[in-house]
Design brief:
CATH topology: Stationary-phase Survival Protein Sure Homolog, Chain: A
Strand order of the largest sheet: 3-4-2-1-5-6-7-11-8
Helix content: 10-25%
Number of domains: 1
Strand content: 15-25%
Number of strands: 11
Amino acid sequence: MSILLTNDDGLGADGLLALERATMGLGPLHVLAPKEALSGCGHQVTNHSEIWWEKGTLDHHYALWGTPADCVRIALQEWGRDWSWVFSGINAGGNMGADLPISGTVAAAREAAYHGLRAAAFSQYKIRDLEYDWVRATSWVIRVMEWLSDRETPAGCFWNINFPHLERTDPEPAILEASVGRHPLPLEYRKGEKGWVYTGKYHQRLAEPGSDVSVCFGGDIAVSLVPV
């Protein structure tokens, strides 16, 4: 397999390195990620100014002065379209339900799907005061890739995966197909000196049964098939 990796947390982010560890040995691998963290940039693309890249510390690593969607577009321009998979992530934080239009991680997978490529976005939900376990997340990527290998990716769709945040002593989560949550993010602000500051609590968002929010918050791996 030939695999393209990207993210929205920037080249060198712990989640991207975990994703790379999970995909090593599967075939030729290229990593093209934003030079700087661009979390929450959505499906922004650069059409009216120059985009450039620079080599990373490894031969197959490149940092792009552009967005996650730009990374996919430039990769197709420079390296062709013969990719078995385009993987984006692992994002530091969940990307489920109403997060999907906001997420740069998801946008990279969506951009790949627009071009007829198989793509998946991976995100790690975060519980406050509980540290990330990227080693465990790496093992979950491997499990999900095996799960995906037995399934077709319909044209015009991509996969969105959200990992739960578990204690080290918690049992291994199940992989469950989930719908994309339909409820908005909590709408709460406090008045600042000149405007408003968002104070909504991510973990208090509403979740309908069977949704990605419900599955992930319930301690299992949520896998959603998303149309572009």
